[in-house]
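Lab meeting, action items carried over

1. Structure of the two-component assembly. Owner: GW. Status: complete.
Input record:
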Amino acid sequence: MLLEYYLNPVIILNINKLHHVLFIVYILFINCASSQSTYKFGMLPSINLNSKLENDWSLNTKVESRQLLQTGVFKGNTEKEFDYLLTDLSMIAAKKVGLNSRVTGGYLIRFEKEKLFHRFIQQYTMVQRLEAFRLAHRFSSDQTFSSEENPSFRLRYRITSEVALNGASVDPGEFYFKFNNEYLNAWQDSVYDLEIRLVPLLGYNLINNNKIEMGLDYRINSFLNNNTEHSFWMNLNWFIEL
Amino acid sequence: MVKYIIVTLSFLIIVSYSNDILAQEKYEKESRIKQSDVPPNAFKFIDSLSLKNKVKWYLEEGIERKSVEAKFIRNGKRHSVEFDTLGTIEDVEIEMEWEDIQASTKNSISTSLKEDCEKYKIIKTQIQYTGNQSSLLLKLLSGQPTEILTVKYEIKVRCRSKKNTDLFEYLFTDKGQLILASRILFKSSNHLEY
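Predicted assembly:
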């Protein structure tokens, strides 16, 4: 209830204006890439399976892979070479704790070349169902361990907006627009970094309520220590409701 | 032995009794339609209101029926006018404040809600008018009360029972007597949360 009251000012902001502002920020971030900034471009496909269980519990399983297609320096050299970077497999258990909110906990295993990473995830989500759109707030923390690297810890906040492109809500057989904006605070070896993600997506709600989305996942990090890294991942997501 | 079985069965029935609200589930699919797809009679009715604000038209598909709905804002209040697929008006709904309902009606509604919910919160209140077309048109144009219209209240409530919290849509008479309660089914939000 307190969180909903705190988030009320977000409701006031007209969603069309919010999207315009975020798009401008998105373009500015891309345009302000300095000549020393590096970038990566690749693919980020994922399959997400969700199944409802008894007593407001649900289980979410996700498989995501990352493939690099191009790296380089803005206004500098580029290197086009396909490289399969990693595969993530996660399993998360979630419990509905209110009308619009869920608490989740889970585990992710990452297969990255010869390395193996173990990540523990904790998450709280809240979905606001407003007149013409939906807003979702996700607060999460994760801890990543590996025999190859020192542990890393992250605190994350993501706001997601979904706007139906036909009618007031997204029904089967309809398109929608989704925009993710996430802030990731990361610590490793006592070094702090901030990553910002902007992800506009076009989605389609299939007849059986499964969804397919496509868009560009833009990430910027290491800009606090003037070593800006940009990455652009073509998102292709398939959400399956079991 | 028989007494023992009866007592045990009675006990099991009482224990398994839940405080669940006996409500229907509300399912509706809504899609925007162009003005050219609106039944002529429905368009003519709305056009006669000479509205300054834009009117949005929707096709609503429920489990058993379809209807056409015009939504607009007039005098600062959200209005919704529902027609059947032939363009015959079915009802007019106007959003209002819960506090503006007559005290005796409010008390009656609150009593009903307390029977179903341990704790509840009114999310949205609408007054619903049904009647013949000319009376509904007069109501929309002048805002004056007309005795020949049937008045009902449609209330969206967040209701917490012993087991869980859900969103319900209740329909009450103008005196606050319960007509219908429907549990609102939420659309999947996994693509927003994960």
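2. GW to write a short summary for the group page. Key points so far: The domain at 21-185 of chain B is CATH 3.10.450.360 (Nuclear Transport Factor 2; Chain: A,). The helical segments of chain B are 2-16, 40-47, 103-116, 133-142, 190-193.
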